[in-house]
Design goal:
The chain is of the alpha/beta class. Helix content is 38%, strand content 19%. Bound molecules: ligand PBG.
């Protein structure tokens, strides 16, 4: 056959395939989301996320050490408080769960990079991501509390804050509050392109943060839209976001690619709880090969264009990179 161009030529053998690989995965791009809870001696498995745990402050060190050992130094804290109220005061309490976890982690793991999720839903009695006015979230009143929360995280040792509430103007509000207090160099990773998604179901079980009524569709995005995501991302960059996140990841990789083209800041993709749960469940049933699916889904997020990948499988992926199974 006269065929000059044969794509299979470059697939011939592992060494060549790795040489021409277009996407490289590195553990330094991984962030592990971690649940910290009030109490002591707690290592509690999350029923809808087998293999993931809620830790109390005295036990979280074991997981942080294991992550560091595996090569994952980025962690994002989610807090599970004892007490919730209408205005989510646990979110910005200097002795709140995340603030305490930050102080301990900063002291004991100075080599780790500590990020916090800035939101109200784990702390409000109604489970919405801000303060209410009737049955709707009051955007502008919520901004003050989000800024206060972000500042208290940074004062407790957060290296970066990540607002996930989807209120309008929150990046600007947080940026100016941090700057006013001298934290001009603390970056903001904005959950700018965050969809109202059923993929967050297991997380809401894990964090006890399901809304008591209604849903989050008046603040999180409609999953039929993509130009709206670009609008959100551009706005947040203008307000001072240093990193833009797309969330969820797996069903939204088109958005990762579009956002990567639209902005000139690093792009993060968050592989959320429902993605984790589906892989775990499929693997437990024996229908899929967990390890291979983890590698394939992670590589596809990087191939789509993300620079940073948030995943409950961070430790496993770091291991697979070392073993040469992905990378
Ligand atoms: C808080 C927040 C949520 C997630 C991250 N930050 C839940 C939500 O918006 O309902 C979801 C993470 C996951 O599902 O893994 N607003």
């Amino acid at each position: 056959m006269d065929m000059k161009i044969r794509p299979r030529r470059l697939r011939n053998g592992e060494l060549l395939r790795k040489m021409v690989r277009e996407t490289r995965v590195d553990a330094s791009s991984l962030i592990y989301p971690m649940f910290v809870k009030e109490g002591t001696g707690i290592v509690e498995e999350i029923p809808t996320m087998p293999g993931q745990f809620r830790y109390s402050i005295d036990t979280m060190g074991e997981k942080l050490a294991a992550l560091q050992e595996a090569g994952v130094s980025g962690v994002m804290f989610f807090g599970i408080p004892d007490h919730k109220d209408e205005v989510g005061s646990g979110a910005y309490d200097e002795n709140g769960i995340v603030q305490k976890a930050l102080r301990k982690a900063k002291a004991e793991f100075p080599g780790m990079y500590l990020i916090t999720d800035v939101c109200m839903c784990e702390y409000t009695s109604h489970g919405h991501c801000g303060v209410l006015c009737g049955h709707d979230v009051n955007n502008d009143e919520t901004l003050k509390l989000l800024a206060k929360t972000a500042l208290s995280h940074v004062q407790a040792g957060a290296d970066m804050v990540a607002p996930s509430d989807m209120m309008d103007g929150r990046v600007a509000a947080i940026r100016s509050e941090l700057d006013r207090n001298g934290y001009v160099n603390v970056p903001i990773m904005s959950y700018a392109v965050k969809y109202a998604s059923a993929f967050y179901g297991p997380f809401r079980d894990a964090a006890g943060s399901a809304p008591a009524f209604g849903d989050r569709k008046s603040y999180q995005m409609d999953y039929h839209n993509s130009r709206e995501g670009i609008k959100e991302a551009l706005l947040d960059v203008e307000e001072g976001a240093d990193i833009i996140m797309v969330k969820p990841s797996m069903s939204y990789l088109d958005m990762v690619t579009k956002i990567k083209d639209a902005v000139h800041v690093p792009v993060a993709a968050y592989s959320v709880s429902g993605e984790y749960a589906m892989i775990k469940a499929g693997a437990a049933m024996g229908y899929i090969d967990e390890e291979k699916i983890i590698c394939e889904t992670a590589a596809s997020a990087f191939r789509a264009g993300c620079d940073i990948y948030l995943t409950y499988y961070a430790q496993e992926i770091a291991g697979y990179i070392k073993e040469g199974k992905i990378g």
